[in-house]
């Protein structure tokens, strides 16, 4: 049974897709269209909480109806979901929901959330794409891959923080 004290220790999971060069986006969109990869994201977040930056939410919000979204913004107008002005407030609100906490980008929000993350579920897109939005650099010696699934166009990995 999940208890309240367990809820306060819910793991924080960064989830996303990037090229080998850490490209995650171009402008407000993604440089690739890989439905199988996007489906792994949708499957992961179903029934869970998803924290997203305001810019990404404006693009991906319509796809998040199976999850509880929380948007990080310094002052977005009413988006129909909770909006908070810091990653810490987003995480506090997410913990109160008692389900898995995913942080789904974009670049600015990954950067803010990385120090709080226990897990990263990352798809590495095999083809190279240009873009102007990047996943933050992380110290690979502090993370280990606990799952790796090969797909035609991407490799899905689950990374767990070890230090
Ligand atoms: N490949 C993937 O898996 C993936 C996933 C998601 C997104 N993306 C891509 O990422 C790109 C968008 O990323 P982005 O970095 O431009 O935008 P973002 O991280 O989605 O959102 C940025 C917004 O978050 C708010 N924000 C940022 N820092 C804040 C802080 N310290 N306190 C309060 N609010 C803060 C601001 O909203 P306000 O301006 O409203 O104040 C800011 O404009 C797009 O290209 C998208 O396609 C890729």
Automatic annotation (TrEMBL):
Pfam families: DHFR_1 (PF00186). CDD domains: DHFR. Its EC number is 1.5.1.3. InterPro entries: DHFR, DHFR-like_dom_sf, DHFR_CS, DHFR_dom. It is an enzyme of class 1 (oxidoreductase). Keywords: NADP, One-carbon metabolism, Oxidoreductase. Pathway: Cofactor biosynthesis; tetrahydrofolate biosynthesis; 5,6,7,8-tetrahydrofolate from 7,8-dihydrofolate: step 1/1. GO terms for biological process: dihydrofolate metabolic process; folic acid metabolic process; one-carbon metabolic process; tetrahydrofolate biosynthetic process. GO terms for molecular function: dihydrofolate reductase activity; NADP binding. Residues 11-163 form the DHFR domain. One of its GO terms (cellular component) is cytosol. Key enzyme in folate metabolism. Catalyzes an essential reaction for de novo glycine and purine synthesis, and for DNA precursor synthesis. Belongs to the dihydrofolate reductase family. This is dihydrofolate reductase. It comes from Bremerella alba. The gene is dfrA_1.
């Amino acid at each position: 049974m999940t208890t309240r004290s367990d809820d306060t220790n819910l793991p924080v999971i960064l989830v996303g897709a990037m090229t080998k060069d850490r490209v995650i986006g171009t402008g407000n969109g993604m440089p690739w269209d890989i439905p199988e990869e996007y489906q792994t994201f949708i499957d992961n977040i179903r029934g869970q909480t998803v924290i997203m930056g305001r810019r990404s939410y404006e693009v991906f919000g319509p796809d998040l109806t199976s999850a509880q979204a929380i948007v990080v913004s310094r002052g977005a107008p009413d988006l129909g979901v909770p909006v908070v002005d810091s990653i810490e407030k987003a995480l506090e609100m997410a913990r109160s929901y008692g389900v898995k906490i995913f942080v789904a980008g974009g670049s600015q929000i990954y950067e803010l959330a990385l120090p709080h993350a226990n897990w990263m579920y990352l798809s590495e897109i095999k083809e190279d794409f240009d873009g102007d939005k990047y996943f933050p650099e992380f110290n690979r010696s502090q993370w280990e891959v606990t799952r790796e699934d090969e797909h035609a166009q991407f490799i899905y990995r689950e990374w767990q923080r070890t230090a």
